[in-house]
Design brief:
It holds the Pfam family EAL. The chain has helices spanning about 5-10, 55-60, 65-70, 70-80, 80-85, 100-105, 125-140, 155-160, 175-185, 200-205, 230-245, 250-255, 260-270, 285-290, 295-305, 315-335, 340-350, 355-360, 365-370, 375-385, 385-400, 405-410, 420-435, 440; strands at about 25-35, 40-50, 95, 115-120, 140-150, 165-170, 190-195, 210-215. The protein is an alpha/beta fold and about 450 residues long. An eight-stranded mixed β-barrel has the order 1-2-3-4-5-6-7-8, surrounded by five helices. It is globular and about 75 Å long.
Length: about 450
């Protein structure tokens, strides 16, 4: 698929595109923050600022006083772009701030209700800073003390003005953690556990009364206790295997008839505004023809990750991660030389199945064998080999906000720079959010376990 075709497809789906000014040298990655019910409730934004040579026209302007007047203004303007807004999917953004950013009047352009301002633990908490925080607090801006590992003088000065405290679960002394958490909870602070990458750490923080959890524990098999393999999920897996072999309409019809829930979803998908052909689809065969096997396959792949509870799909962290990663892989491979439709489809599959063990448990290799994926896709997922493996490494680094790792991987990919990667990450997140918020109309609904 060409870049033009992708743009047309994105426009047809009402998905935000690369809306930021091409001259901008600022972008963001996002990291999920979950609540006690394991649902998305916020994202932390990780800033990337491109070197002058990567930012095109910005380099030529670097010596002008206007260009140097306010680095904070550039960051704020980037935050207000449509792609960033859409990538947050109606969730608040947690924004790490510097002293310079706090004192720049451009910060008043940020909608106070949409952002939490994260104060670094090493910020100079002098009287001037406290006065500025008090002023901004009066304008309804909310503050978080970030990355706390000890209760030092800076922490003590900032605490009265903070709504929330982020505690590094790996750096804070374990002996003091229970008492520390108890005191902060008694003071009415929102507690956020930072660095939650395993079910054990999540359960520890949960038992201590933490309110929010930042990390990717939910994408690991041990974090999927609530996602038990169910008959509907096995039905989805069987359908995926059939779709992988270019089935006839009759074969698809026979498989779907064994699963009434899938039929219901497909009928809703076929009658959505984007697919309806001027009349209501009333038979299963009409629904298959109206939807097409490619769209049915993608719909089925994403449904594998849907949580069984009745929650909004934009709040489902695993589904959002799968959709965003798959879309990123698809967009990124199209930026590389000689990428065609086959490469695009393979890239989407690589992204969507790269952590399918989080749903089914057991070994990733076994699950990939059941799915009968091609060798390049398997090698990309299991060994990080080939172009697809490199792109998978890139998107995983993007999810961590690990810009140096992205830069290193981009050296092996002709045509991709770090800023491109960051922007495609935002566009992919926006696509996932838009797709899921319109789920009720388009048939992308969760399968009940």
């Amino acid at each position: 698929m060409t870049t033009t075709a992708v743009a047309e497809e994105r426009q047809a789906e009402d998905v935000p595109g690369f809306a930021q000014d091409a001259r901008a040298n600022v972008s963001f990655a996002r990291q999920p923050i979950l609540n006690r019910d394991n649902m998305l409730c916020a994202f932390e934004l990780k800033l990337y600022q491109a070197p002058a040579a990567e930012s095109g026209e910005q380099e030529a302007q670097a010596g002008q006083p206007e260009a140097q007047a306010s680095a904070a203004s550039v960051i704020i303007q980037a935050l207000l772009q449509p792609d960033v807004r859409a990538a947050l999917a109606n969730h608040p953004g947690y924004l790490p701030v510097t002293r310079e950013l706090l004192f720049d009047d451009a910060i008043r352009s940020l909608p106070a209700e949409r952002f939490m301002l994260e104060l670094p633990p090493d910020i100079v908490a002098d009287d001037e800073l406290i006065s500025r925080i008090v002023e901004l607090h009066g304008r309804r801006y909310r503050f978080v003390i970030d990355n706390v590992a000890q209760a030092n003088d800076t922490f003590a000065r900032l605490l009265p003005y903070a709504d929330a405290v982020k505690i590094d679960m790996h750096r804070i002394p374990q002996a003091m953690l229970p008492k520390f958490a108890s005191v902060l909870k008694s003071a009415g602070k929102l507690l956020i556990a930072l660095g939650v990458e395993s079910q054990d750490v999540f359960e520890q923080a949960l038992d201590l009364g933490f309110d929010r959890f930042q990390g990717y524990y939910f994408a690991h098999p041990q974090g999927a206790a609530a996602r038990k393999v169910s008959a509907p999920r096995h039905a989805l897996l069987n359908l995926l295997q059939l779709l992988g072999g270019e089935p006839t309409v009759a074969q698809l019809e026979a498989e779907l008839k064994l699963n009434p829930v899938l039929v219901m979803h497909l009928m809703r998908l076929a009658n959505s505004s984007g697919l309806a052909m001027g009349r209501k689809v009333t038979t299963l065969r009409e629904a298959i023809n109206a939807t097409g096997t490619n769209r049915i396959a993608r719909w089925t792949q994403l449904l594998l990750y849907a949580d069984g509870r009745k929650v909004a799909l934009e709040d489902d962290p695993l589904l959002q991660l799968a959709a965003t990663r798959a879309r990123f892989m698809e967009l990124a491979v199209q930026r590389l030389p000689e990428a065609g439709r086959d490469e695009t489809d393979a890239a989407f599959l690589t992204g969507v199945f790269s952590f399918v063990d989080s749903v089914f448990g057991g070994s990733l290799e076994h699950t990939l064998n059941v799915l009968v994926l091609s060798k390049p896709i398997r090698d990309a997922i299991l060994l990080r080999e080939g172009v697809l493996g490199t792109l998978l490494t890139v998107v995983e680094a993007l999810e961590r906000g690990a810009w140096a790792d992205i830069e290193s991987a981009c050296e092996r990919l002709e045509g991709l720079q770090v800023l491109d990667v960051a922007q495609m990450g935002l566009v992919s997140a926006a696509w996932a959010g838009v797709a899921d918020r319109s789920a009720e109309a388009t048939g992308l609904e969760r399968i009940e376990d």
